[in-house]
Amino acid sequence: MADVSTSMRLKLPVVCFILEIILIILFGALVQYDYETDAKEWHNQSHNDYENDFYFRYPSFQDVHVMIFIGFGFLMTFLQKYGFGSVGFNFLIAAFSLQWATLMQGFFHGMHGGKIHVGVESMINADFCTGSVLISFGAVLGKTSPIQLLTMAMFEVTLFAVNEFILLSLLGTRDAGGSMTIHTFGAYFGLMVTRILYRPHLDKSKHRNSSVYHSDLFAMIGTIYLWMFWPSFNSAITAHGDDQHRTALNTYYSLAACTLATYGMSAVTSHDGKLDMVHIQNAALAGGVAVGTAGEMMLTPFGSMIVGFLAGIISVLGFKFLSPILESKLKIQDTCGVHNLHGMPGVLGAIVGAVTAALATMDVYGKGMEDVFPAVADGSIDASKQGGVQALSLAITLGIALLGGLIVVFGTPPDTLCFEDGVYWEVPESEAPHEAQLTTVRTEETEKLSS
Amino acid sequence: MADVSTSMRLKLPVVCFILEIILIILFGALVQYDYETDAKEWHNQSHNDYENDFYFRYPSFQDVHVMIFIGFGFLMTFLQKYGFGSVGFNFLIAAFSLQWATLMQGFFHGMHGGKIHVGVESMINADFCTGSVLISFGAVLGKTSPIQLLTMAMFEVTLFAVNEFILLSLLGTRDAGGSMTIHTFGAYFGLMVTRILYRPHLDKSKHRNSSVYHSDLFAMIGTIYLWMFWPSFNSAITAHGDDQHRTALNTYYSLAACTLATYGMSAVTSHDGKLDMVHIQNAALAGGVAVGTAGEMMLTPFGSMIVGFLAGIISVLGFKFLSPILESKLKIQDTCGVHNLHGMPGVLGAIVGAVTAALATMDVYGKGMEDVFPAVADGSIDASKQGGVQALSLAITLGIALLGGLIVVFGTPPDTLCFEDGVYWEVPESEAPHEAQLTTVRTEETEKLSS
Amino acid sequence: MADVSTSMRLKLPVVCFILEIILIILFGALVQYDYETDAKEWHNQSHNDYENDFYFRYPSFQDVHVMIFIGFGFLMTFLQKYGFGSVGFNFLIAAFSLQWATLMQGFFHGMHGGKIHVGVESMINADFCTGSVLISFGAVLGKTSPIQLLTMAMFEVTLFAVNEFILLSLLGTRDAGGSMTIHTFGAYFGLMVTRILYRPHLDKSKHRNSSVYHSDLFAMIGTIYLWMFWPSFNSAITAHGDDQHRTALNTYYSLAACTLATYGMSAVTSHDGKLDMVHIQNAALAGGVAVGTAGEMMLTPFGSMIVGFLAGIISVLGFKFLSPILESKLKIQDTCGVHNLHGMPGVLGAIVGAVTAALATMDVYGKGMEDVFPAVADGSIDASKQGGVQALSLAITLGIALLGGLIVVFGTPPDTLCFEDGVYWEVPESEAPHEAQLTTVRTEETEKLSS
User: Fold this and answer.
1) ipTM greater than 0.90, yes or no?
2) Which residues are glycosylated (chains A, B, C)?
3) Entry pTM
């Protein structure tokens, strides 16, 4: 592994081509249009075109799609010299993950007569699973090669589908916006991976692990898109009608309350009482994570705002006090602070969901109970039992995520060349790191590695 | 007020927390899901899911949401050293305003049995009201603290709701896209505030009150999003069916015509015949403002294009000739030129609306008259009277906006530190203003203030 | 033409105003609301509001709109000193083209009783035609004045409408996403224009014909938006129901497969095995172009992925090996490489469409055949004949595009001042090219021109 770039020339194309060819073969063998996308099937029955699920979900799908590719992609461009890697590797692993997720999710809970049926709902679910992988990417940002990222994605998507299957299909857990399945899972999986890949000499790349003025503005593009479209994210696969409507509304208020909490906490904890861009870029989003489970329930705007408010506070405190401890004591180098944005708020969201579920009554939900808690509506379990199932699901998710993160093992770029686009990308000349310097560093590293 | 930042550490958190806690308590006491978001209510009656208002309005809502947070936020990033403040304070006051607006608008015209009902329409209305506050923010950009901005937002939202109540509920004025209620109101309110806060020594910050190459590109993100989604803005709360469709179409053509007028006028008025980014970023949007009232009417594409064309011309002329006079003679320092983008085009839009209303006939509108002019359709007034009501509404809006702007009073950052992120934000080191210099300036200011 | 800017002061306003006034007059004489946007017409019949085409197509329209103004606009900002021109001229010619296209397309295939009917479908079609013009703009980027661009747009829109009329109306060709009508047409038209405008001394502007770090990030905004919303582009005007749904799905998978192929090919062909931003920004989109014709057909996800995979490979190979040859041997200076992104993938898309059409059977399409191949469904031609028509359409498109590009002739900025915003835009002082230097260059050029 004398030269990082030379090995890329061989390995990356091989990995990309082999993965894509496998995907194509499996799609050829297993994937079919579902009832609503198939010309013959759809026209076989009589109904109106506006009943096609496309019109209920496609606008939400596109909002989710923007969150995955622009939201996550640009949120991570805050690093001064890792903008190409942030948005570019995000693009690569997302494009891979959504294909692989279609297969894995289809395999575990979408088979119909030996075939995986696809349509707008499977597209949303694949994007959701991809979101989880991108959360983990945030934890290891700047310290991994694209090949490692693709490997990680392959494992993580698989385990995501397993966890999702256990929760949604076996246990009947409700988690429409994925506080558990997406955020908690992605965060703790990523934290475990970054722990295993601990780099004792990462401080050698410390000067690059920070932002410049314009990179912070690029990151704000990601933040704002995530913030705006989170109501679509949480409501994208809830039941039609009041459910989608209510989930969007709850998320909207949770995020608004979270934002005020974030600004207040940022000023109170920061140096000199100034606002810290890291908090604004991340903690203001915690409100969306924290109503991912309970958003479809009758949480009320009041309840949503309380949850969002708490999520903002917890998240800023995490950035200020917990992250340094995680790094120094537990050797967890969490580049984007996903523990503060997705980890803790995800756990909070799971708990809120469990409590809200346990308190559900027919008096509040009426016939709408069938949409939100079908098992409670048909009398097979009672509400408090549903709450217990929700709580159990959190534990299972944490277990699978942490164990799953342990599985992934591999080789990585030297500590001196982290957070640096020049390793994997052609960088415009004027801004490229001094070639000589780069070479020197490489040589040193090579010596170390080969010694 | 010796040190701006120290006072932020105390005041901003206190203000944020108190405001949010008050909001949460009021939401708990007053706010309820409406018929279409409530699980029990919606399921109590028989209807198809696609009849839920969510599917008629949510895509438009998301477009409006993008205009508020990305559109306004990035439009103002043109300042070279105030990008964090532009997008960051925009974020803060918008998140506050939309919550406060839900309460105020609900209080004035959304109470049902002592409760404020919320759903996608209230979300759009709250975003609309927020837009008005952000217009005013444009007038004072770079010269106010976040606490002042929150105070301004609190007053402005309240008065916005009062004005809206008088127009829409008492008088039966039509103003779906808010030429009067949003743009005229926001602009003249903001101009009055910036007049009261007149800074005689603002030329000390003159070198920062300008753009750099990349800040102009960031601002174009805001411009283009506002331009693209304006058809959704104007049509978001018009009646279902032909009304939403027609409004979007009219706005689309008005904006296209406005853009050509803007480029032509920019070249003719600018130094050396070159195009001026300030014009492109702002005047090209005036066409959307100017069909805010008449867009839902049978204005025809032809009429819409004439209105857009005029709006573009007026707006560029305003930037070139009127803004300097307003500053030098009337002491109105309008940072973003909101008078040219929202003020004059808003007044034009109100006049166009009044004339178009006065000319409405059953021959043109048919049974569609019920949607656009219900009072004319049921015979309680005739079209010319509706035109009169529209004109009166403009006068009322101007009066309330200007008087309202007078109410807001407070203390502000020193003239030497305007348009500077370093006052309120942690700025990445390499780009921070020289610490010594900042300190010196502060000390001087402190001396002045305490003397 | 002694001074470029002086002539702009006169010519650009005159051109903009005359064009817009002509447009307004023609709209006044010819354009009418269609059935679904007209208050009287829509209310004359009984139907539900959700049957209005607005709800089937407006969200797709807005996605297409974003692709046209943000997608194309920002994709071209990769040039270090031509960001204003990229996004600003894109804005100008798009705003003109969509109005002119409404007239031309209406004239050729939208007349009803002597009037052109407009609604959401005409808006989408106008945006599509605009897209074609912007593709041609990509070929000549940085080397043409705004007046030339408007002239080119005027001719190109007209010929686009002629070609579209021949294909869709006369021959019954299927091309919902425009592999032929939009991409192939726009690319070869633009390549012919740039060939005629060949600049032997363009290497004098060579140092500006490249990117800087942040300009590449701005370009990624354009890329990602194009990528995300391409499913909406291809499905925007297909039949309601399964057709829109299926087209979006096929495009989604084609793009994902294309992205992996692009990353692999970029690493294998680039210097040192590093990824090249030019490939990522462009080739990853070829998958959307290549399913523009067959996307609405029963191509299956499997077929879509194969097409996308091939498109990505072809596109990167084009950038690496074909573009340099086109420039050195054929004197085609293709600034954005539109031949690789739109030309070859467009031709591939046409071929895939012809083959897929030829293979269509009732067994696969059932009653859905009426939506996709109405002429095959009603028995007037058989599937293999439809395939032949598709192939013929490609030849016609290539012919009209290449001949059309020959027509456009004009005068242009000097070779030394290409790719430079300072010629047409007020550039913030600190970054403006040294005034003296600019003057010197101008003087030299003037001498040459006048000699």
Assistant:
1) yes
2) 44
3) 0.94
